[in-house]
Amino acid sequence: MNLTEQELIRLCINKKIYIYGAGMVGGLVFKRLTEHGICKEKISFVVSSANSNLQYMGCMVTDIHDTKIEDNSIVIVSTLKKNHFQMIKTLCNVGIENYYIVDEELYKEMEKAYVDNYLMCHELKWQKKEILFMASDNNSSSGAFLCLVDLNRELNKKGISTLVILPMYGNGEELLIENHIDYTYVLSEDWLNETGELEKDLTVNESSINHLVSLIKKLKISLVHNNTTYTYVGAEAAKRAGIPYIWHIREFIKEQGFWFNNEKEAYRVLNDSEAIVPVSEYVANCYDGFNEEKVKIVYDGIDIDRYLDYHEILTSKRIEILMPGNLVPLKGQKQLVEAAIILKDKGLDFRISFVGSGEANYIAELRNIINDNNLEDNIQFYDRTNELEKWYQKSDIVVVCSRSEAFGRVTVEAQLAGCLVIGARCGATRELINDFGTGVFFQLNNSYDLAEKIEWVINHKSQAEEITNKAREIAKANFGKEINAEKILAVYESILGSNLVDLIN
């Protein structure tokens, strides 16, 4: 049954409401329900698997298997489309037959209503801005978004005024507010297709581009900075407004299952920029259509003080192993689960913590392997968090299994925190780890090798501590957010032909 927002609201009046999904979609549903006057106390969040004392939007989150769904209540499946099948299957398993799904059409309607309400309540001040940042997401746990926040904060400290454009609803705006970074919404679609999909009709972005042109002119923007490969509307607006733009390349989109809607046109627009800024040599080499003269590699910056920690590792009998990040096949969590089987057979005492949200089907696959091998006491899942530094502080080893890390924010954060990083010898991880110098490599897709390297770390405490100490010092010297901001500022000034800081002051 396809619902409109008003129809869903009417269904929820005077009912107990269970929002199934405590993520981006669930958060939007919660905000729209409460905006329409539905009492917060009538709303609960349920998920497929919950840890104790978990909260979201100020509400307790419970495991749907342990929650008695009251009669005459409403269950709203609030998640991405790719997770619908698994969640509906779970509902059937627990005997819930009556539920409503937030499909893509309803989500878009709610998103637009939320943004319209935001724009009505937050009038943009028409004062000059130097740099217009085009975000491609709005996610507080996205590495690309975190880098955008850090860079804007550092530029603002230097007196360079910026404005971030958000293309979609999300929780990233909370970080912008927290860091006093100006932003507004201009909804738009990206220019990528999932593998096998038909080409998108991008004419839907025409009004968004015109809106951006108006912003550029009214705010007297000097330069547009596209934060990732996914977004293009800012570049098109910059061209129409007659100002330069640059492009941050923070990912290899083909590895993520996407490619350009029109490859030839995409490379033309990319190469029309004044600078292409890959975050690693690996990413720079992933694309074969770049104008090499415009490529300027700048590694991402990290908030060093936030993650820096001098805790001693391997002090307890039980070894704490952490793997943060999205739970998706690309990140390779399955390799660590398979390595855990080997480690348990060897009698080693360890606990693995997966911290992050992800694809329901993939998580179900991981759980099946864990249950089949009696690893429930060794492997735990925890929801994503904005306080990942607390997890590093209590971890001995951090594992990175991704086959195509574009930069490796987790690797650097873990090194700063004094954890021993074991990473797959591929992607940009090869640029961040010197084997047995600042970390330890394992062979990608070789769970036996991964288990062997974990066992080596456990049995060589003094050498492991030497590795972590060296890694921390190198990370401090090379990957601070201040260093990143200085290098990006140098790119701006090479384009604009002036010293922005001196000009402003």
Which features would summarize this protein structure in a list?
505 residues; alpha/beta; Rossmann fold; 3 domains; 6-stranded mixed beta sheet; 6-stranded parallel beta sheet; 20 helices; 20 strands
Outline the fold blueprint:
Elements: H1 5-12, E1 17-20, H2 24-35, E2 43-47, E3 55-56, E4 59-63, E5 74-77, H3 84-93, E6 100-101, H4 104-121, E7 131-134, H5 143-157, E8 162-166, H6 173-178, E9 183-185, E10 192-194, H7 206-218, E11 223-226, H8 233-241, E12 245-249, E13 258-260, H9 263-271, E14 275-278, H10 281-286, H11 304-307, E15 319-324, H12 333-345, E16 350-355, H13 360-372, E17 379-382, H14 388-393, E18 397-400, H15 409-416, E19 420-424, H16 429-432, E20 440-442, H17 447-459, H18 461-478, H19 481-496, H20 500-504
Parallel strand pairs: 1-2, 1-5, 2-4, 5-6, 7-8, 7-11, 8-9, 11-12, 12-14, 15-16, 15-18, 16-17, 18-19, 19-20
Antiparallel strand pairs: 3-4, 10-13
If you had to describe this structure to a student in words, what would you say it looks like?
The protein contains 20 helices and 20 strands. Strands 3-4-2-1-5-6 form a six-stranded mixed beta sheet, with helices on both faces. A six-stranded parallel beta sheet has the order 9-8-7-11-12-14, sandwiched between helices. It has a six-stranded parallel beta sheet with strand order 17-16-15-18-19-20, sandwiched between helices. β11, α8 (233-241) and β12 (245-249) form a beta-alpha-beta unit. The termini are far apart. The protein has 505 residues and is an alpha/beta fold. Helices cover 41% and strands 16% of the residues. It folds into three domains: 5-107, NAD(P)-binding Rossmann-like Domain (Rossmann fold), CATH 3.40.50.720; 124-301 and 482-504, Glycogen Phosphorylase B (Rossmann fold); 304-479, Glycogen Phosphorylase B (Rossmann fold, 3-Layer(aba) Sandwich), CATH 3.40.50.
